[in-house]
Design brief:
Number of helices: 27
CATH topology of the largest domain: Rossmann fold
Number of strands: 9
Bound molecules: iron/sulfur cluster
Shape: globular
Strand order of the largest sheet: 1-3-2-4-5
Distance between the termini: 54 Å
CATH architecture of the largest domain: 3-Layer(aba) Sandwich
Amino acid sequence: MTVLTSYDAIAKCNKCGFCHVACPIFRATGHESGVARGRLAMLRGIIEKRVEWDEELEDPLFTCLGCGACTTNCFGKVPTADLVLNARAEYLDKVGKKPAHRLLFEHLLPYPKRLHVAARAVALGKNSGASKVANALGLLRIFGRDLPKAEGIVDKLPMSSFRGTIKPGVYPGQGDKLKIGYFVGCGIDVIQIQAGKATFEALKKKGKSVTVIDNCCCGLPPYTYGDMDNTKMLARKNLDAFEKLDVDVIVTDCSSCASFLKKYPKIFKDDGRDYERANKELPMIKDVVEFLYADDQGQRSGDETVSSYHDAHAAAPKGGEKKGAGAAAVIVTYHDPCHAVRGQNIKNEPREVLKKIPGVTFREMAEADWCCGGAGSYALTHYDLSQKVLDRKMNNLKKTEADILVTSCPACMIQLAYGIKRHGLKTKVFHISEMLAYKDTLH
Ligand code: SF4
Ligand code: SF4
């Protein structure tokens, strides 16, 4: 779909301005060009030949978080995030694709082993303080001009990947019959490996077997840059991998991956055979939050112990210490990843799961469903703007006085942990799988 063929959708905007209150970028900048109404006016200007395709469009097109909050507040349900993403694809065709992105999308993301090697090189450079080494490899330049400011977002990187430790293959579980496929997103694989281990152990408790899938990147990163060729290439590789599996369900613990895997039929809507393949796999795809919630509804086993988890979280607040006569429970709050709450309509499920954990006091955070500003690599490409959005989230978090902030997207986890460090808070950030493991320390 081009900007021209999106005219009807763009023209649905009646300029009412109801989107302003919901847009994190508008609330951070106050600029009309940063809100849905302004972005749509710009797209309309392109169609009506009042605006040229040139580099001036880069900021209005690429500062959108793609969070979808504007659509939720829009009576006409104008899908601004999708329209902006489509326009990015056209921008890259007409104005030019950045070569550094090609390196990432074409030569690293399709090949998990290469990604592991690259991540290890970055980790070596970063953890030894020699980030120039990684820069020299061209691995970090991908993120552009804001990288020097953004380098502190990830303090240390693990030296091994999740699938370097737990290789793709079939593992026996303790459940009766369910055969589970575990889709390992890039963020879990190379950064949040403790969350991956917690999910893996939780899935083994539920399934007769757990297959760690030899998948590649889901395709969301090139999609957000408007690179449809590489998006489809990655999606096809994953569909090939899914077709070889003998599983009943495919679970992922990255809400961004889950949301995007569910989008494959839409990606392939004009590609007959791939469209059919994507539709066939669609009912199998589950966000781990949905999966855990459904399981929780079906059977309250209450003993998802994750032994390997405890070492990694020795510094976490000790709920058990707070319990006992008159002692307070651990205060837990939740951040909704955009790709869960708007991408998959997952809202109550994580809250229900968390509220049932003995020893937990769940405290709702204001604007919990607002984007944290992480938005994939947004924090690396638009550091200052991303931090303004994050500051709002941190101010809301402070008011909860939460010991633990739970979420289900590795990019959000990184961003939130950085905000907590920058604001000098004590709150710990857990993936929901980790929280379920951690609950055993609360007894
Ligand atoms: S709320 Fe919808 S219709 Fe109103 S200005 Fe925003 S995008 Fe346009
Ligand atoms: S998708 Fe999010 S950042 Fe983009 S215009 Fe809509 S509310 Fe603003």
